[in-house]
Amino acid sequence: MRIAECVVGDETGTIIFTARNDQVDIMKPGVTVILRNAKIDMFKGCMRLAVDKWGRVEVTDSADFVVKEDNNLSTVEYELVSVAEE
């Protein structure tokens, strides 16, 4: 199994994408991709984007938007809080 972490983004922000196996070969700097049926995994309290066997990573034509690099959702740390019922 091969795993690589890549920063992906759109006009709303960025997030770390965990590429696995054949996805690693697709993810290159400057390449525009479409991630279909992507999901969020939590890793050490932070979000990571992933595409499992039910999704697809597709190379596409260049997008015509500017990536908002100052909003990286993977840098936000979340904590699971249990709420007691009264």
TrEMBL record:
Record's protein name: Single-stranded DNA binding protein Ssb-like OB fold domain-containing protein
Organism: Ceratopteris richardii
CDD domains in UniProt: SoSSB_OBF
InterPro entries: NA-bd_OB-fold (IPR012340), OB_Ssb-like (IPR048970)
Organism superkingdom: Eukaryota
Residues spanning the membrane: none
Pfam families: OB_Ssb-like
Stretches assigned to the Single-stranded DNA binding protein Ssb-like OB fold domain: 1-59
